[in-house]
Amino acid sequence: MPRMTIADLQRMKDDGRKIAAGVCYDVQMTRILERAGVDLLSVGDSVSRTFLGMESEDEFSLDAMLLFGKAVSRVAERAVVNVDMPTAVCGAGPSAVAEAARRIREETGADMTKVDIRTQEEALFDCVLAVVESGLPVYPQIGFPVGEPRHGGPETREHVMKWANAVQDAGAVMIDLTNVTLDIYAEASAAMRVPVIGGQTGPESDGRIYVSYALAGYRADTIDRADDAPSAARYIYDVARDAVAAVHAGTWRAP
């Protein structure tokens, strides 16, 4: 199966086909998502909280990001691969971002990097430019933090359209628009030449990005969930509980 390119993602938008993206950090999830048919694998700096137990992405280093980026890129066969720019690097300024972009490209082989400038678009726009100038395609994230109510209304619309146009004109190959109302997703997707996707959107946009671990319920806090949503954690817990009980009872069998 041929490897997809950023140009293929652009053709999907041009043809009206939706882009399916999945956040992943490890080899097994990469292989699962590729078999499921995702078009974009995004190695998110959310791994710092999800897998490493850090309080904030700001604690997460470039070296750590490269480790996870290499893991995904090593086994990806079809999908476009994005490796996030750590937020701590963005805080260090455009020169640090340019050097990090070089290392992401050379050390992971990623197709692009996502730069999160949400709520700091004015201050961090130069980081987007630094990636463009480095030669690595850039995928900016604009909008608002997840966990807040959806942002909408005329002021939000004006803010989103201003920065969506700004990053597109700067050379962005895709935009991650986060936590806005569906009408703003629809307007931004229709207005932009490049694909606009998001984690809180419906078919109004050019695609959807899922955090695969949350999608599958691979989180310890889903073990006791009462709804019908998937819980990989519940399955793992049940298997482990039975195995541990067999050991404690002395009834397990050798492999």
Describe the fold and architecture:
The protein is α/β, with parallel strands linked by helices and 255 residues long. It has two domains: 6-215, TIM Barrel (Alpha-Beta Barrel); 217-255, no CATH class. The chain is built from eleven helices and eight strands. It has helices at residues 6-14, 27-36, 47-50, 62-75, 87-91, 94-108, 121-134, 154-170, 182-191, 212-216, 232-249; strands spanning 19-23, 40-43, 80-83, 113-116, 138-143, 175-178, 196-198, 207-211. It has an eight-stranded parallel β-sheet with strand order 3-2-1-8-7-6-5-4. Helix 4 runs parallel beside helix 6 and helix 6 (94-108) packs across helix 7. The longest helix is centred in the last third of the chain and has 18 residues, at 232-249. The model has no long low-confidence stretch (mean pLDDT 96).
Q: How do the helices and strands line up, and which of them pair or pack?
A:
Layout: H1 6-14, E1 19-23, H2 27-36, E2 40-43, H3 47-50, H4 62-75, E3 80-83, H5 87-91, H6 94-108, E4 113-116, H7 121-134, E5 138-143, H8 154-170, E6 175-178, H9 182-191, E7 196-198, E8 207-211, H10 212-216, H11 232-249
Parallel strand pairs: 1-2, 1-8, 2-3, 4-5, 5-6, 6-7, 7-8
Contiguous helical run count = 11
Name the CATH class of the largest domain.
Alpha Beta
Using the 3D structure, state the CATH architecture of the largest domain: Alpha-Beta Barrel
The CATH superfamily label of the largest domain reads: Phosphoenolpyruvate-binding domains
Rg over CA atoms, rounded to whole Å, is: 19 Å
Averaged pLDDT, please?
96
Overall SS class: alpha/beta
